Amino acid sequence: MDTFAQLLVGGLLTGLVFALVAVGLTLVYGVMDVVNFAHGEFLMLSMYAALGLALIGIGPLLGLPLVAIALFLFGIVVYRVFIRRLLAGPSEATVFGTFGLLVLLQGAAQATLTSDFQSVPNPPLQGTIHLGPIALSQATLVEGIGALVLTASLFAFVEYTETGRAMRALAEDRVAATLMGIDVQRVNGLAFGIGAACVGAAGSLLMLSYPVYPTAGAPFALTAFVVVALGGFGSIQGALVGALLVGLLEVFGGFYLAPELKMVPVYVAYLAVVLLRPQGLLGRR
Amino acid sequence: MSSLLEVRGLAKRFGSVRALDGVDLDVAEGSLTGLIGPNGAGKSTAFACIAGAEKPSAGSVRFRGREIAGTAYHRVAALGIGRTYQLVQTFADMTVLEAVTTGALLRRARLRDAIAHAQEILAFVGLAEKRYRLGRALTVADKKRLEVARALATEPTLLLLDEVMAGLTPAECGAAVELLRRILARGVTVLMVEHVMEVLMPIAEHVVVIAAGKTIFSGTAAGAVRDAGVIEAYLGSPLEHGEIAGHAP
Amino acid sequence: MTARPHLYALGAIVVLGLLAAFGVRDAVVLDLVFTLLLYAVLGQSWNWISGYAGNISFGHAIFFGCGAYASALCVTHGLTPWLAIPAGALAAAALALVTGFPTLGLRGHYFSIATIAVAALVETFARTTPWLGKANGFELPIASGWAALQFPQKGPYVVLALALFAAVQLATIALERSRLGYYLRALRANHAAAASVGIDERRCKLIAFAWSATMASAAGVLYAQYTLFIDPPSTLALAISIDIALIGVVGGIGTLWGPAAGALVYVVLAKAVALRFGGAGKGYDLVIYGAIICLIAALRPYGIVGTIVDAIRRRRGSIAVGPGAAAETPA
Ligand SMILES: Nc1ncnc2c1ncn2[C@@H]1O[C@H](COP(=O)(O)OP(=O)(O)OP(=O)(O)O)[C@@H](O)[C@H]1O
Ligand SMILES: [Mg+2]
After folding, report:
1. Ranges of each domain in chain C
2. Which chains have 3 or more CB–CB distances shorter than 8 Å to chain C?
């Protein structure tokens, strides 16, 4: 029973970490129908950025807003220079174009920052909290709380601000939104920037407990793709639910199958959901 | 005469929008039936549900006595229902001949036979000399003709035509009516959505009127323009031989 | 419409290849020719599902790996490697069906994500399964002759690769002139209109994907017999999938000669990168490949051959030259 409780809590916390990475992806997808296959590489960049700040004395938590802002600007530039052009081409172009970006960023990181694993020196929050029989790492707990805050604020932003409304209008019906006078390029660019800023926040928090290396983002991104598809492309609440589900599947799978096979139940669940409910668990259609 | 198509209580909801809410219609074999109704009445949605492009929320669609509601789109086509779209859906990067050949391949596995059949259909609809043009390079009238040709190439028993004359010049309309008569002469049954009563009156032996997703009239075209319910549905505007509703967006 | 120019071109390549196989002694050159042909086959395999059918695969290495592992398993269990051709093809097609059945009838990016996921699973599976050699892979015992599909010289390997390349190109020429080829183009152009003329999207794309997997698997068999050593990084890793996608994209998706052109560019590029930065490339190779994919996606989404076909088409005044080469980007 204790094991079960520990796994349950562990799975939920892992899920929250996944949600942290997935919300930005789902926002971008919802607004402009683009799956950013380089999402994990954005995460890797923000982890390196957080590491850089930590090396000059600004810890991951303090550095979080800085990294988020930097990634926001980076996202806007990438949209203006690159994604905009992909959107003008055939639909396959956004798929292999963002994949090219993935390859490019991974290579650039490998060439300039080496393939070594690097961690924040003397990271904060290394203790463990005991709740009855359940042991929780402080870092993971903070990451989980961060995920909840981030998801909630993104949700509030999309629901209650003018820009958020414009984004929803675009997601709903591009043509109608254009007719209503919404500046598609501006809103798309903002959405891409905000998606990247979310990843910036995620990367900073992840540096509390994970090392960074050139392909560090890839596993998180892969999970995020699955999470977003499970929850329903474009749905922020869906991403949270999908992430919790994937976290549980992974933790229980890792325990009851074998650690190397922890992703098997996740992918099987993905294929099953896609087969039976292609709009995702909370997606509309 | 037996009904080729029998629709009963057809309903379709998009979220909270009730696009169809009880459509009944019958199409007699070999006939041309008109489907009319104000903008947003649900005519195109009814077509989509009959053709299998959308799954109806409720109701039955019987084609040649067989229930087909909810059957996959491509299967319905194979069963013998062809359709055109209100907003033309061409294969932009295919030539006219290739697009019609694609339709012909439904009943012919060999490409050579399909091309021969496509050539015949193109001559029939009068697109033969434009067969090497790309679909996206055609005029609207020709795109609509191409859609009819593509659907005809699948050798349908029933052809659903959604506003094939909207946006055409009077001369083009005349040509389209003449083509319709020849399609009927081929033995194809036609169900068509058309806003201009003048066009429909002389060729449709039967019309069905829907408004707000419901069938409100079924009978002759002459009867429809005198029916009180139909007149009310069209905001009480007097219905003579003119257009009975504004053009679709 | 006519296939004749393509057949002549293919004939010329085969003659040149045979001349190289029997006339050239230089092992480096033969190795280059072999690699080129193998990559052209892999690129064409990718092109069937990602170009003609329009569903981008990011995990194509696993089908290649199916063939390579089938070969290694056959040989190490004392069976003839010829058996690996059908066995690898079956395994690859089965994997393709598992990946494609849930995802190939759907709009959106479910398929591409599934290819990454299944590839990651397969690689993990191979790395952790004893009978698949775990992370060490397999060394194939040395033998010689056609029965063992191993040769002391490289010439026969070039002949085999040439035969495989010719078979794959012929199959693609046939595809462009078949019901399946028309149906795939129609689906790419407009899936709803395609369904309205009776096209079953999932079925068509599954068939294309299964053939695609089969071709890649055959290349894998040949590769294993050639290098006599396989392990997950050399046959299953994401890096291999990236190379395959790069070849398909550079040459031009959905074109007959695109993969061959892409393979040529890739082999030259890989050599240049290796000369400049050393064998591993230290990430610079990825920077270059990634930049090329990005540039093509943004500027010339139909690649080298697609651009040429487009130019010809414009000159002739919108007369289609051949299927698949849809070259104008919608505004
Ligand atoms: N995919 C959809 N999602 C939501 N609502 C829809 C959808 N398709 C149609 N509707 C709604 O269903 C109703 C019927 O639409 P439909 O296009 O069938 O009307 P119509 O009779 O063909 O009109 P028109 O004469 O303008 O072509 C409309 O209110 C429309 O807004
Ligand atoms: Mg309509």
Report:
1. 4-238
2. A, B
